[in-house]
Amino acid sequence: MRNQPGVLIVEDEPAIAELIAVNLRHNGFRPTWAMDSASAQRELDDVLPDVILLDWMLPGESGLVLAKRWRANPRTKQVPIIMLTARGDESDRVAGLDAGADDYIAKPFSTKELLARVRAVLRRRAPEQAGGPVAMGDLLLDSSTYRVSFRAQMLKLGPTEFKLLHYFMNHAERVHSRSQLLDKVWGDHVFIEERTVDVHVKRLREALGAEAGSMIETVRGAGYRLTAQSILPQAQQVNA
Ligand code: CA
Fold this sequence. Notes:
The chain is an alpha/beta fold. The protein is 44% helix and 20% strand. It contains nine helices and eleven strands. The protein has helices at 14-26, 37-46, 63-72, 90-98, 111-125, 159-170, 178-186, 195-213, 232-239, and strands at 6-10, 30-34, 51-55, 81-85, 103-106, 133-136, 139-142, 147-150, 153-155, 216-219, 223-226. The strands form three sheets. It has a five-stranded parallel β-sheet, with helices on both faces. The chain binds calcium ion (CA). Residues 12-13, 55, 57-58 line the site of calcium ion.
């Protein structure tokens, strides 16, 4: 189950962090926990989560300072942030939203509400990912369940391969350069080399198997294209 959305919890109180993490895990998310700003920054430098749950009152730098910094950074500015805080005043809510938070939850909160808000920011930020199934021939991808199948057989894809296939299927029959793919699929290419795309395309083809994998064409000197052409016409020619 590696296709689950990642949620970074930045919270200095272990009991609250644990409660949130357990609930996220039970509801199909992949939580990671950072207890202060330095470890949160390390987590972000390592891998970008799909959502950040950010406590306002942290030892050292406050959540507000972190939200402002992450919003100003091109690498992290797209990651949705939900501020968690005991402060419920309107002026504080405004300060949180002004700092770039996408949403705001006052403690104590219900875990149901928290989950609903996490899902809501994911839908707003990535409308394509919240969409229903996309089909191309016998290849089927369902972003609501994070499932991919070919001829009704389930396939196992890593999270990046899933995102890559999702992008290809929503933009099929078009050639995408490596740098475009980094931009659209990874969301940033500050720390990523273009050959990383080749590695993940290779993994995606392997995960899809020979037949479905051949739908992803390498276009020499240009990039990659997902096409339905490569399977069907060839099969028909053989029969003709
Ligand atoms: Ca706190």
